[in-house]
Design a protein that fits this description.
The protein is of the alpha+beta class. Helix 18 runs antiparallel to helix 22 and helix 31 packs parallel to helix 33. The longest helix has 34 residues. It is elongated. The termini are far apart. It comes from Paragonimus westermani.
């Protein structure tokens, strides 16, 4: 059917789908760098830091080079289908955060489905309704006005409202029955007065008839609007007051006589009533031009002044100019005619007032020109008849979040109106309707063949210019094409692809922004209900709006948000992805974008994840392979056989995470997954790796098999986590997988594990990309709730101990006598005792005691009222409540802590009114029992009002009474109380110093870029008696130091003189094992262990001649450089004095430089030939030409050459 519609309201559309690659790469970081890392670096050692954006660019190159997206589709083509409909992105413009958010959601779910065993075709859903294309054509072809548009195409306009200063007028409409009484109306569009057919008032608002003293005229307007026209009551006299409905159906004199005939024909030019009239603007009397306003159209239609089938009263043409019906202003552009219209109204005495006002008016958001609101002939779908079925089908869909389905969308459906589907443009696909001149006969052509049969014309192009000339006879009429255009979704169904369509309908998943509740979601449901009587999709994720950090809409003009490209160049695409989906915006709420949130993802998730991988490869696997002389690798599906408690915990925790992720993604809840990922990373790095660090490095194992089991466990967990989160962070997981792949052996498991053709794998059977691998399924046999509970209580205990240490400024390296853990539940105490060895080590205490006896340690309960809240609420009863709480017995306080409510003096108190706290002694508060958190993780501390608050805990600083001054306390919301004995002890202080010294040595090693295997000598130069005591060979703590440092160490009271060769050798004989020689100084640094500062120097050490040729020169040099050379570079040195030669290796098998420069080469040659430092040598490139100094950068230029040397004893 054909009805008029309003052009700015007709923006619903149906999407066409063009084939194309989508969302294999959602958005790529634009990091520019001439150096790109390769993700195929295998087992090479990892750098200390990683440039994530640069690595992402390298991964993009890798995906493109290997056609990973096409390969993944080929891999899955025989699998069951998972259907995903993409929504309507624009074809022009750069993506903003809204696009990136929607793109991320629409990437994660299809990736997850693909890696869960489905075949997912991903196609672009171009929003090809013509407007973006036409706008780009306007710019390209320099189109400025209607004449240009007529030649090249029609500009379609969308409304963009802006607040501007506009002129308004107040005009009068004399009543037919009382010509001296006039209704006055307000308008900012004088040009619409030519089409006025009625006036409208609010039926229930109060209106007044007044006498204007200055003009001497009688007016009717809304009483609430008097102040907008008059400065004071002295300017008018109120003659009468009445409700608006009293004015209903009163007749008035038309402003112009262009359509005066409608007064008799349709009952026009009378007063109508409707509640849309407001008291905020105007006079409370609204003039009605039904074909230039939606409410005007609705009200006039409801009152019979016009009908849906009547001729349109719209004297404005397609160029915005008056038609011949408006004789006085014909041919004038309507906005230009405003001035002439106002002049005529003044002459006729109909102008009452004229001024300016800030008013919203629609502007084209692209061309920045004013729009007019007018009715055009439009074809509609009768949606109003489908409302009940629409609601039924909507209820069958799963929405995330579901409140959008039940609220916003369902309400929109209940008020659904007939849907305008046609468009008035040149570019686009015409509707396949041929009609007679009088519109009484309509033929909908269903196919090209049918059109050929009707017209005799065979076509292949369905654009307007190809169809407009085709006419054919039907009965006695010549049928012509409807000129309206609209793009319809099609896969050539039902002519072909019938099976593909039916298999993929309804869609398994769609996602778009909340604005599409009135757009794409709505059109999908209407079409699906009308055509198939079923919902168009099964699952839907609705995202909210991304705002600027100040809560305002993001504006390019205001520049109130960072450029997305810059964010990705700085932090990477994956960080932005994870930040967006871990925000309220995925729950259809608004997000205030903050760059610091993206940075936190990198800091709290990506870097710890990377460091876990780096620790595995460099500090665990490489030392293991060197120590055992065998390659480390595991099969991906193999589960470590381990009795180690922490191994079993991390394996259980990993499987619980996998189970949780599958559960949440089956319900399409993305926003719950990232917090668990962050928690998992924290548990893996800060608990498992930290507490197993020595075991993973081979320091605390009984045999190599236990070492290998630890490595197997960490490798297994990292691999499963990488596969599990590959849909969320495709770049980072690819980066990690490529570096983990050399430790994974897929041989013989291709079909069983991944179902991959051989061509997609390397020699080890490892697939080229992590995205070819399935997401892991949970092995529930590995899940132990008991172990996870034990670790949970262990973590709470350790974290509370750390809170205490932070509060009293006691570092973790300072050992303490005892930790007392108090809890009323014996089962909890038993769980904590089962983790005793870990708690003792992590809290660095000698003894762990668990008990329920608070009294023994002076711990009591006390109620603390919220004075600010209760003082004003309880008033005169407040003092009585205070006294009652003071006298409240422990049993009642414990009951309140458990239930969260209690009645005191007739008043019900909740957790906001009363807190239960621990006290030690009579006046010292320790900790709130009924906190809001469970106490499983801690965060940054913040003192406020005596309380030290953390993310999961709150504790109170205090000074204990004398009887219990040795204890510091903290507790959590689960009733766990920890006390630390902080009594000073000289023996414990020495152990603290030893641990601090080890820490400073390790820091200095790291600063010098040394690895644990590099042979060095540690020299401590200090006058501190305490440091010299603990580091002396006879100290009981030297074993603790050496167990970690694993290198010779000596303490000297003065700095060793590097220029005195004799002093070097004397020192070496004392501190080095037999057969070792002191090398050059690697690093010297001043470090501090308060209150002492001292010098810490690291020297290289080398073997004597017999061992050097076979061993030392083929090990990595202690002077580790960031430069990398070619593998196994070497140089031959001939000793002319003794007639011998040696081969010096310049770089190891990993391409790592072993000789820094020519001076370092000379020192090594001295060592090889057994010459002391007093012997002076020179290197020659020939019999007589000395070797010039060669820097680190050019050392490899000596590769394969022969040098000469001879002694020059002085």
């Amino acid at each position: 059917m054909c009805h008029p519609s309003f052009s700015d309201q007709s923006n619903e559309r149906i999407n066409g789908h063009e084939s194309g690659q989508l969302y294999w790469i959602v958005f790529s970081p634009g990091a520019s760098s001439s150096h790109r890392h390769t993700p195929m670096s295998g087992c090479a050692l990892l750098p200390t830091s990683v440039n994530i954006p640069e690595e992402e660019v390298a991964i993009l190159d890798f995906w493109e080079k290997n056609e990973c997206f096409k390969t993944s589709l080929k891999q899955s083509e025989s699998r069951p289908r998972f259907t995903f409909y993409d929504g309507p992105p624009f074809a022009t413009g750069l993506p903003h955060y809204g696009h990136l958010l929607a793109g991320t959601i629409k990437d994660i779910i299809p990736r997850y489905a693909h890696q869960s065993g489905f075949h997912v075709e991903r196609r672009f859903g171009w929003d090809c309704h013509g407007l973006p294309v036409e706008y780009e054509v306007d710019k390209e072809c320099d189109i400025h006005g209607p004449d240009d548009v007529a030649k090249m195409g029609i500009n379609a306009y969308n409304d963009k409202c802006r607040s501007i200063v506009m002129k308004y007028i107040v005009v009068s409409f004399p009543l037919t029955s009382q010509p001296d009484v006039e209704l006055i109306a307000w308008t900012t569009t004088p040009w619409t007065l030519a089409s006025n057919l009625a006036l409208c008032v609010h039926p229930d608002r109060q209106y007044v008839k007044i006498f204007d003293k200055q003009l001497g005229r009688t007016f009717i307007l809304m009483e609430a609007r008097l102040p907008s026209l008059y400065r004071g009551e002295n300017e008018y006299t109120i003659l009468d007051s009445f409700a608006g409905k009293k004015l209903e159906n009163l007749s008035y004199e038309p402003m112009f006589d262009y359509f005066a005939h409608l007064k008799e024909e349709r009952g026009a030019f009378r007063v109508l009533c409707d509640s849309y009239v407001t008291e905020d603007t105007g006079t409370g009397v609204v003039h009605q031009a039904p074909y230039f306003g939606e409410d005007d159209y609705r009200v006039c239609t409801a009152n019979g002044i016009i009908s849906k089938d009547s001729s349109i009263i719209c004297p404005v043409d397609a160029t915005g100019r008056f038609t011949a019906e408006v004789q006085d202003f014909a041919g004038q552009y309507v906005k230009d005619a405003d001035k002439a219209i106002c002049q005529q109204l003044k002459k006729r005495g109909r102008m009452v007032h004229q001024s300016t006002v800030n008013h919203s008016y629609p502007y084209c958001w692209r061309s920045d020109t004013p729009l007019i609101y007018k009715a055009v002939p439009t074809w509609f779908i009768r949606v109003e008849n489908l409302v009940e079925k629409l609601l039924e089908n909507n209820a069958k869909c799963h929405w995330v979040p579901d409140f959008v389905r039940e609220g916003r969308f369902a309400n929109w459906l209940r008020d659904a109106r007939d849907w305008a589907v046609s468009r008035n443009r040149f570019w686009g696909t015409p509707m396949p309707l041929w009609v007679s001149e009088d519109l009484q006969e309509v033929i909908c052509v269903g196919s090209i063949d049918e059109l050929h049969k009707l017209s005799g014309v065979r076509i292949t192009d369905l654009h307007r210019e190809k169809l407009i000339e085709i006419c054919f006879l039907s009965g006695k009429c010549c049928m012509k094409l409807v000129v309206s255009t609209s793009l319809w979704l099609h896969i050539h169904y039902p002519f072909e692809n019938t099976k593909a369509f039916e298999e993929g309908f309804p869609a398994d998943f769609i996602a778009e922004g909340i604005d599409q509740t009135r757009g794409w979601f709505y059109t999908l449901l209407v079409l699906s209900t009308a055509l198939f009587d079923k919902p168009p999709f099964k699952h839907l994720i609705v995202n909210g709006i991304v705002l600027a950090s100040d809560g305002q809409k993001m504006s390019k003009r205001l520049k109130n948000y960072p450029d997305p490209a810059e964010i990705m160049q700085k932090h990477g695409a994956d960080a932005l992805r994870l930040y967006l989906i871990n925000s309220p915006v995925v729950r259809a709420q608004n997000l205030r974008f903050c760059e610091s949130g993206v940075h936190e993802v990198v800091k709290d998730v990506f870097l710890p994840w990377y460091n876990a991988l780096r620790f595995l490869i460099e500090s665990s696997v490489v030392p293991y392979e060197r120590a055992t002389n065998r390659k480390f690798s595991v099969t991906p599906e193999s589960v470590p056989r381990t009795d180690n408690f922490m191994d079993r915990w991390i394996l259980s925790f990993t499987q619980s995470l996998i189970l949780f992720v599958h559960k949440e993604l089956s319900e399409y809840r993305l926003y719950t997954v990232v917090p668990r990922l962050v928690k998992f990373i924290d548990h893996l790095v800060n608990w498992y790796v930290r507490m197993n660090r020595r075991r993973l490095k081979g320091d605390a194992v009984n045999n190599s098999e236990d070492w290998r089991t630890a490595l197997h466990t960490l490798t297994h967990v990292l691999f499963q986590m990488t596969c599990l989160f590959s849909p969320f962070t495709p770049f980072l997981t690819e980066f990690i997988y490529q570096r983990l792949r050399s430790r994974l052996d897929f041989t013989g498991n291709l079909k069983d594990h991944a179902g991959l053709p051989v061509g997609y794998c390397r020699q080890t059977g490892a697939p080229d990309s992590v995205h070819y691998l399935p997401v892991p399924k949970a092995n529930q046999e590995l899940i132990s709730n008991e172990i996870e509970e034990v670790v949970s209580w262990m973590q709470s205990t350790v974290e509370l101990g750390r809170i205490i240490r932070t509060r009293v400024n006691l570092p973790l390296k300072a050992p303490l006598h005892e930790a007392i853990v108090i809890h009323s539940d014996p089962a909890v105490r038993s769980l904590i005792q089962s983790a005793k060895s870990y708690i003792v080590e992590e809290l660095n205490v000698r003894l762990l005691t668990t008990t329920d006896d608070k009294q023994r340690y002076g711990v009591q309960l006390r109620g603390v009222l919220n004075h600010r809240i209760l003082g004003s609420r309880l008033k005169q009863d407040y003092k009585a409540v205070v006294e009652a709480v003071k006298q409240m017995p422990t049993a009642e306080l414990e009951k309140f802590a458990a239930t969260g409510s209690i009645t005191v003096c007739g008043h019900l108190l909740g957790s906001d009114d009363l807190s239960v706290v621990y006290t030690t002694g009579s006046n010292t508060v320790c900790e709130a029992l009924n906190g809001s958190s469970s106490g499983n993780q801690t965060g940054n501390t913040e003192k406020k009002g005596g309380f030290i608050k953390t993310r999961k805990h709150s504790a109170v600083a205090h000074v204990d009474p004398v009887a219990h001054q040795r204890y510091e306390t903290a507790s959590d919301a689960r009733g766990l109380l920890v006390l630390l004995d902080t009594t000073a002890d000289p023996e414990l202080e020495d152990e603290r110093l030893a641990r601090e010294l080890v820490n400073r040595i390790q820091r200095t090693r790291k600063k010098a870029q040394l690895v644990p295997e590099d042979p060095i000598v540690v020299v401590v130069s200090t006058d501190s008696s305490a440091l010299r005591r603990i580091a002396s060979p006879t100290s009981t703590l030297i074993g603790l130091i050496q167990a970690t440092v694993k290198q010779p160490m000596a303490v000297t009271p003065a700095r060793l003189d590097a220029s005195d060769d004799q002093e070097w050798q004397n020192f070496a004989r004392v501190c080095l094992p037999a057969g070792w020689y002191l090398g050059h100084e690697i690093i010297r640094d001043t470090v501090s262990i308060p209150p002492d500062d001292f010098e810490l120097a690291l020297f290289s050490r080398t073997n004597k001649f017999e061992d050097a040729l076979s061993s030392s020169l083929h090990q990595p040099d202690m002077s580790v450089s960031s430069h990398r050379g070619a593998p196994n570079a070497w140089v031959i040195v001939i000793n002319r004095s003794i007639g011998q030669q040696c081969e010096v290796t310049l770089s190891d098998s990993d391409g790592r430089l072993l000789v820094l420069d020519s001076d370092d080469l000379l020192r090594k040659v001295k060592c090889v030939f057994g010459w002391s430092h007093s012997v002076h040598l020179r290197l020659y490139v020939s019999e007589s030409e000395p070797l010039a100094h060669i820097s680190t950068r050019h050392m490899l230029s000596l590769t394969g050459k022969t040098l000469y040397t001879a002694s020059e004893t002085t």
